[in-house]
Amino acid sequence: MFTVQHITLKKGERMVLPVAEFTLPYKDVFTLELPFAPPPEVRGNFGGEQQRELARLFNSPKVWHKLRLTNNSKYPLTTASGAHRS
What we know:
By secondary structure, the chain is an alpha+beta fold. It is built from two helices and two strands; from the N terminus they run E-H-H-E. The chain has a two-stranded antiparallel ribbon with strand order 1-2.
């Protein structure tokens, strides 16, 4: 929680104020998700629909683009307001 001088809000009003601004270094990270396949002796017990679903998953791997941030600021990164309501 931060105290802000010379600001008055009416009951029920809300206000958003930036408390800090800084630049963070980042790295692009790409991950490939490969589905897990059961061993061949187990796959043999699968029905036709299950076999087709496994084939579909293996033929459509997904690549995700992610960002890895390095917080070298003196502030924690959070999406929470820090306020706790009971």
